[in-house]
Structures are given as structure tokens and as C-alpha cells.
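Posted in: Protein Modeling Q&A

I'm a second-year student putting together a small comparison for a lab meeting, and my supervisor asked me to include a predicted structure for Molybdate/tungstate import ATP-binding protein WtpC. I've never done this before, so apologies if this is the wrong subforum. The sequence is pasted below exactly as I got it from our records. If anyone can share the C-alpha cell output, I'd also love a short note on what stands out.
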Amino acid sequence: MIEFDNVKKTYADSTVAIENVSFEVAEGTTTVLVGPSGCGKTTTMKLVNRLEDPTEGTVYYDGTDTQAIDVTELRRDIGYVIQEIGLFNHMTVGENVATVPKLKGWDADRIDDRVDELLELMALPPTKYRDQYPRELSGGQRQRVGVARALAADPDVLLMDEPFGALDPITRADLQDEFLEIQAEINTTILFVTHSIDEALKMGDKIAIFDVGELVQYDTPRNILEDPNSEFVRDFVGDDVTLKKLSLINVEEIMQSPDTNDTAANHVEQTVMTSGGEIMHQLDPDDSLKSALSMFVESDVQSLPVVRDGGIIGIVDQDDVFDLYNGD
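Accepted answer (user: helix_wrangler)
Welcome! Here is the predicted structure, written out as C-alpha cells:
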């Protein structure tokens, strides 16, 4: 869907922003560009929608050199979300989301339907939020509107430049989770910029790590953790590699059936009984083992139920999680 072929970008003052950058982004996947400040990750992303143009090499969009595509049409076909959000304060939420479809000449009914569809997808009920103004929303709500606006014309590609960077940690984590659920539904091709390796590991199907304008490793999150190709990548990933690996494994991957583990099932039953018949501590099948580890430490129970739609579908035993944490 997107391909960089030996791309170099040099600015007018002779500063080399990136050099010899080559990689491909597969359709329907999320690629995260990550690295320290000034490494070239944002410049790389801006080459896709021609906010910057390459000095050498070629950027391809769906097989076509971006230099051969009308820049206005290219930008209208690519969604763009930035940290500062950039909503139009004099427009309502609905008018903000409708901006690009109007520019593309959609009819009014189609626009209205798309606005309502996206606000629902972003957990912003249209009847409540469509006619509100950005100043009436929280930071997290404004960012949701920004994502909805970027998706409004159903783009094949979505560029996201530090989209959650200005939010508090709790809101940021919540929006990350929500966006992963949305991406599972829409399967848009996404290029996502962040300075956080933890965010990159969580959000990316693949990760491109940059350092001083060079792409130093392009790989899956698991491979980057298990096989960093340089001292820089190893240092950038950090020391808590085992904990980061647990963040990549879902509870569903190791849970056992309640019917096959009587001991764990008894532990869960005792937990339920001592809490007055309610499950006080439970896991979602999509929760990471890092979350499970935290819950075990906090709750001091031996086993935790995995719950979907109000029913127990599996059990995770504390020993299994700690064995993985300890590398057994």
C-alpha cells in the first residue's frame, strides 16, 4: 500500500532529515514509526501526503509515485490526525467530521449518515455530541472527534502523528485500547508516529525504529524485543523486556477451560463466594498478560476468571503467568 524506496530528504539548510530509507507498509496493517526527537520519524510520515517531498528516492502510494498524484486529491484521500487535533472551533462536532466529505462533493444525506456512523464508532452518541462545539469537550473527546474527521471520507490510509501524546496517561491508555478495537473493524492502513516504545509495541503490527535519520530496524514487536539488531535498539527498548513481552500476549492465548482445571475452577469459585456472589476480579480475553500479572499482584488470588458477555469462558492460573514472567 505504501512503499519507501531508498528515500532521502535534505532541507534547504543542508540538514539531512532521513537517508536511505526503504520499507513497505502492507494494506490493512499499522506500522509505527518510533525513535528519539529529531530522528526523522515525522518527516518520513509527512512524505506520504506530500507535506514534505523527497530529495532522492521514491514514495509509492498504492503502486503510484506520490509525485505523480495531484497533491490536493492525495491529501483528501489520506486521513491525518495530529497531536494538537486541529479542530475548527467555530464549527460543531458534526461540521468538523463532515469537512472532507463536503470537499469531495458527497451529498448531504450520505454525509449525515457517515457523521453519525463515526460518532457512534467513537463512543460519542450523535444525539448528544453532533451539535456541540470543541470547547465543550474534554481532551479525550476532542481527540476522538479528530480521529472521526480523519476517517470521514473512508480513506485507504490514515496518518497519525503523536495522536495521544497530549493526553493524560489514563485517557491515553483508554484511547489506545479503543482505537485498537476500531482498527480491528475497519482495517485501515495506518502510519503512526510516537516517541514511546511502549506505545509502539502496543499499537503496531510492525515497528520502524529510527535514529539520526536512519531506519535502524523494521520488524514485528516480538522480533524487536527478542532480537534487537543493534546496541541502540537494545537500549531504546529498555531493560524490562520480559514485561514488555507479556504485553504482547493476550489472556485468551494461555487460558484454560474451567472444565479441564478443577483446582483453578475451585479457586475462582471461592473468590466468587467470598465476594458475595459477584466476581470481584476478572479478565477480558483481550487483556494482556501484563495486565493479568498486575491483577494477580493486586488481588492476591491464585486464579482469575476470563469473562465475555457476562459468562466465564476460561481460567488463568497465577503460576502460568509467573512462569512466563520468569522465563520458565
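A couple of things worth pointing out for your meeting: The longest strand covers residues 16-25. The longest helix spans residues 169-186.
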